[in-house]
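Please, does this match?
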Amino acid sequence: MSSAPIPMADSSPARRRKFTVNDLFTDHRPQAVGVTDLTSAKEIQLSRIEPDPDQPRHTFDEAKLAELTSSILIEGVLQPIVVRYETDRDVYVIVHGERRWRASKAAGLQSIPALVREVPEERRLIQQLMENIVRDDLNALDRAAALRLLKSQLGDVPWEQVAEAVGIRRSRLFQLLGTEKLPEHIQADIRAGRLSEKQSRALQGLSETHREALRDVIVADDLPAEEAMRLARELKAHKIPDDSNAAAAALARFRTPRRMINTPEDELGLLLSAVASAATGSSRERAALKRLADDRELDPYDEDRLLSETLALARSLARTPRTDLRPGSSAFAALAALYGALDVALANE
C-alpha cells in the first residue's frame, strides 16, 4: 500500500514571512499608521530645569502669567517646552517655553512635558528669536536687545544679515531697534504694556516737549497707532512751538472732528478754528482772529461783559459731566483751543 506524498512547505520568497525583534514592539493599530514615536519626548522634574540667562525675554506680564497658571491648573500643560541638556552641570536648560515652566511651578506641578534637543550654541539665540520675534507678548525692547546680542554672536555682521538670519524684514528690524532710542520712562511704558511698539513709533523724532504731550494723549486714550502717527505728522507740519501748553492745545485742535472746524457755514467752527490757530502765538493768527470777529460783527471789547461771560463759562464747567470733557469730545477740543489761545494772550501782555 503506497502512502500519499507529504506536501512540502512552499519556501518561495513570495510566501516567506520574516519576523524581527522590532516587530514585537511595533504598534500595528490603525491610529499608529504614519506616526513615529519621539525618543526625545520626556516628562522632566521642574527642579531639574532652569531658564536660559541669554534668552530674549526679560519681561513677564504678571497678569498673563497668572492666567496661564490658572489654565494649567485646569487643563495641564497642553504644549511641551523645549530644553537642551548640559552634561557638565547635569541640568536641562530651557530653549523655548519659560512662561509655561514658570506657570507650572506656580501651579504646584512637579514635572512638565518637554522635548530634548541638541541645539548648537551658534544657533540657539537664532532659534529663540525666530520663536519669539513675532510673538505679541514679547515686547519690542527685549527683541531689540536680543537682536543686538545676535549681531555680536555672529561676528558683528551687517544688520541685513541679522535680519536674514531670523527671517524678518530689514525695515522691521530697525523699527525694533528704534525703541531703544526712546527715553527710559517711555521704555518703561512699553515694558509695562501702556504703549505698544507701533504706538511708540509716533514718538520717535519729536522734540521732548512734543513727545511728552503726544505720549500723554496716546496713553490716556489708547490711540490707534495710525492716529498717533497722524498727530505726530501734524505737530511737525504746523511747526508748533516747543511748549507743553501749545503742544497740548495743538493736539486737541488736530483731534477736533473735521466737520466742526472745516465747515464754512458753521459759525462756531470758524471761530474755534481761528481761536485754536491763535494758540500758536503768531501775531498773524491773532490778527486773523480779530478780523474774523470784526467780519462777524461780534460785540467789541467790554470789561464787564468779559467778566460776566467768564463767570458764565465757569458756572457751565462746574455743571458739565466729566464724561463730556474727555479728550476727543467737541467740548474738550473747544476748551483746549481756548486755553491755548488764552495762555498765549496772557503771556504776551
About this structure: The mean pLDDT is 77.
